[in-house]
Specification:
Length: 481
């Protein structure tokens, strides 16, 4: 049974898709129906998704679609699973009906009811039902159903380490579980959550108008972390921190994650996929995210972390790859000199949310032309049909676009404070990206703030910043800078 407002939202989405062939944004839903906030629009859309009236492609903007009717399919329901300490698996051999749009044909699925609160930061609460794709492998950071010692089952995020498997909860009150690889079997990967209408954090099944008004009032009183955290560095995990920020609130992200364990970052862990999802959510339409990254070499082969991350952020999260710039290093090179080529570059993929950048000013990035001021003949470029354009005679501009290979000196910018961090990038890198992609008075975010280069250059350029850094030692270093 839909409420009056849910009917209005559903009908508006149907009409909009019929006219435009894609769904309205949350802002458009809010504006058309005169809702109090984007959060309220999201609440109604989420309720319609949970009830099977809408389906959405994960992490794709404007990817809502309408079910003409609620088509349900039966999948096995195998009892309960602990989102806390492991409990024995239960197989009640019942079945449960789920919307057909939540699963893909040809795959094997089952459902479990969650008990416990260890996964609450992943929006999985006591009493929720999780949909599981039956498979025996998983990537780092995925939520898995894990069988321990052939007798106990638990729900956790999985991380494969050197000589063990770490099962990580999503609640700081719970401890990690370390298991030898031979003692653990992956039984499936979580693909979706059906919220318990009576769970303490779920609001998607509230159906009375008075409850909706109560929710809207509560939303308006929500703590404004964006305003509170402007021009500060928060000592916390960046994914948890970004979850507190409103969507469509950040203009630019510039960061260098601690990739491949090349440096010891005080033993902390990170999840680049989860980080990308939150960055996409909080960036404004037209916002840019820049990452400085390379790949470790192991046994004469690259780890491919940079390429996997680019594909994940574009294919699974919804970014476009605006460009991939090469950061050419001048300074001490890193490599096995006798058995490999010298390593003198890193990648700087530039990710775009939406159709085109909201702000783009490359004038400050231009470099002197080799023949600037001269009158020259040439430019007979080759066309796509194989023919050559006629040459032209023209004056050469004194400045030109620097292209996609950017040169920077290393050596920690000769900053003694900065050199206390194990892995830094030149301050000129965030300086250039902020000038190019962040509008005046915009907000720049660095989820892996490190020694504070992004914050330092944001201040120099009169932009606002927000930083996350899980190490208190590096937070103090960045603040000192």
């Amino acid at each position: 049974m839909l409420t009056k407002r849910q009917n209005q939202v559903l009908n508006y989405i149907k009409r909009y898709i019929s006219k435009h062939d894609y769904a309205p944004s949350l802002e458009e839903i809010k504006r058309h129906l005169r809702l109090s906030s984007v959060s309220t629009a999201h609440y109604h859309v989420q309720a319609l998704q949970n009830m099977g009236y809408l389906k959405k492609e994960d992490n794709q903007p404007r990817a809502l679609d309408v079910f003409s009717e609620q088509k349900l399919v039966q999948i096995p329901f195998l009892g309960q699973i602990a989102a806390g300490e492991p409990i024995e698996a239960m197989e009640d051999k019942e079945s449960i009906a789920v919307p057909q749009g939540k699963i893909k044909p040809g795959n094997n699925y089952f459902a479990l009811r969650v008990t416990g609160e260890s996964m609450q930061d992943e929006n999985i609460d006591d009493g929720d039902i999780i949909l599981i794709k039956n498979q025996q492998t998983a990537e780092n950071g995925q939520k898995v159903v894990a069988l321990i010692d052939n007798e106990k089952v638990t729900l956790k995020k999985i991380y494969k380490e050197k000589n063990k498997i770490r099962l990580e909860p999503a609640n700081p009150k719970f401890k990690s579980i370390l298991v030898p690889p031979k003692n653990l079997k992956i039984q499936g990967v979580v693909i979706d959550v059906i919220k318990n209408p009576y769970s303490k954090t779920n609001v998607s099944h509230i159906t009375t108008l008075s409850k909706i008004n109560e929710l809207e009032n509560k939303t308006s009183r929500t703590k404004n972390y964006l305003k509170e955290w402007i021009n500060t560095i928060q000592p916390m995990d960046c994914v948890k921190g970004m979850k507190k920020l409103p969507e469509n609130s950040i203009d630019l992200v510039v960061t260098s994650p601690p990739y491949d364990g090349i440096r010891a970052y005080n033993g902390f862990n990170y999840d680049l996929s989860a980080t990308g999802k939150e960055i996409h959510r909080i960036l404004k339409d037209g916002g840019i995210a820049v990452m400085v990254i390379q790949d470790q070499t192991k046994n004469f082969g690259k780890t491919l972390t940079s390429f996997r991350t680019i594909i994940d952020w574009c294919e699974n999260i919804g970014f476009k790859l605006f460009e991939c710039v090469i950061y050419r290093k001048y300074g001490p090179e890193g490599a096995w000199w006798k058995t490999r080529f010298r390593i003198d570059h890193e990648y700087m993929p530039i990710f775009l949310k939406g159709e085109r950048p909201q702000y783009f000013n490359k004038e400050p990035l231009k470099v002197p032309s080799k023949h600037g001021g001269k009158i020259m003949t040439g430019s007979g470029s080759r066309r796509t049909d194989g023919k050559t354009n006629p040459t032209v005679t023209r004056a050469i501009n004194p400045m030109k676009c620097r292209g996609t290979i950017w040169d920077y000196l290393m050596a920690g910018d000769k900053d003694k404070l900065k050199q206390k961090h194990p892995a830094v990038f030149p301050d000129k890198i965030p300086f250039d990206f902020i000038q190019c992609f962040c509008p005046p008075n915009g907000i720049v975010l660095d989820p892996f703030m490190g020694c504070g280069s992004t914050a330092v250059t944001a201040v120099q350029l009169n932009r606002n910043f927000i930083g996350f850094e899980i190490s208190q030692e590096y937070c103090n270093l960045a603040k000192e800078r």
